[in-house]
Design goal:
This protein folds into two domains: about 5-180, Rossmann fold, CATH 3.40.50; about 185-365, Dehydroquinate synthase-like - alpha domain (Dehydroquinate synthase-like, alpha domain, Up-down Bundle), CATH 1.20.1090.10. The chain is about 45% helix and about 20% strand. The chain has helices at about 30-35, 50-65, 85-95, 110-125, 135-145, 180-200, 200-210, 210-215, 220-240, 255-260, 270-285, 290-305, 315-325, 355-365; strands at about 5-10, 15-25, 40-50, 70-75, 105-110, 130-135, 150-155, 155-165, 170, 335-340, 345-350. The strands form three sheets. The protein has a seven-stranded mixed β-sheet, with helices on both faces. The longest helix has 21 residues, at about 220-240. The N and C termini lie far apart (about 45 Å). Bound molecules: nicotinamide-adenine-dinucleotide and zinc ion (ZN). Nicotinamide-adenine-dinucleotide binds near residues 78, 115 and 143.
Amino acid sequence: MSKRIDVTSHKTDDSFSYDIVITDGFRELGSLLEPVLKEGKKAALISDEQVYGLYGKEIEDILDEMGISCSVFVFAAGEESKNLDTVRDAYEFLIKNRFERRDVCIALGGGVVGDLTGFTAATYLRGISFIQIPTTLLAQTDSSIGGKTGVDFKHFKNMVGAFHQPLLCYMNMSTLKTLDRRQFLSGLGEVIKASLIKDEGFYNWIRSHFAEIDSLEHDALEEMIYRACVIKRDIVQRDPTEKGERALLNFGHTLGHAVEKCAGFSFFHGECVVLGMIAALYISMKRGYITETEYDEAYELFRSFGYTMKIGGLSKEEVIDAVRSDKKAEAGIVKFILSERIGSAVIVRDVTDQEMEEALDMIFE
Ligand SMILES: NC(=O)c1ccc[n+]([C@@H]2O[C@H](COP(=O)([O-])OP(=O)(O)OC[C@H]3O[C@@H](n4cnc5c(N)ncnc54)[C@H](O)[C@@H]3O)[C@@H](O)[C@H]2O)c1
Ligand SMILES: [Zn+2]
């Protein structure tokens, strides 16, 4: 059994409509690719070494069975590869294999592969189609949905990019079984974030299904991924180019990013987002938006999943400086996302240094 979510928006000049399919194998992929890859189109399978080694052959076999000519471009796993050098190599690969506008790229992997493939597809020949086959929890619940693609430039994260929607987003949940536990938790941080900003019912569901999620139980994973995708889909449909509401997804990211950067990217993004959420929830509690009990419950949820709850070796000054110099700070004014209540978030621009310092006390050793 699989679940489907339709993503449609007519809000931009480029209206779009595609399906997210959530299932537990690659069985359905062939029939879903059929209408997309007909009439002699070629496919470029783009992946990283790790994911290609695990699942590449299965995808190649499916394409082979369909009689689709498939060329493979694989790069070293990790954020270090998400840059214009790899994009240039991908362009060369596509040119060498004579890819034309009607051909299709297939991104098999986590957010790095999805962002890089999406950006390559968005820009090669002014845009060719692409398909997402996300294999991390983060990619299945967040990065593969919504059409934000891009790469890092020098030390600036996601500095170069484009909006480019996929033709299909095919999620095989079984791939999460080979995912490292820390990677899983990193993605789960963003899932909990989605529930905290948009859906109190989902947040309570996560709290009550802690054990099933923690042990990757099938039904719980399916329900969780489905609900997280619906939240992201709804936001993307209403705000496809991040003019307003989509900014709420940055809950936990203001201080989270700063901590991530100041710690020299030694922690995973989602781990830092969790720290950032604890800080944002703390400020929300101090302002009287959420109760102390609600703050404690959220803290306990993160603790029970085994997240790093405190970080050492950073100075508050350095972290706050990093917040002010973030690319999302407009003229030095920091856009902070706070929890106005559980399941609802607001953008505020008046969080003081003192509030940030007190919140950092909660997450500093
Ligand atoms: N486009 C967006 O809207 C958006 C949103 C959030 C994050 N992102 C981006 O996503 C990226 C992070 O994505 P990520 O966390 O998926 O990282 P990732 O793609 O680097 O994957 C993490 C690691 O897990 C490995 N891996 C992937 N799937 C696996 C599997 N099933 N089994 C075993 N190993 C597997 C990868 O090889 C890699 O080493 C960042 O670059 C971030 O900027 C984009
Ligand atoms: Zn994030």
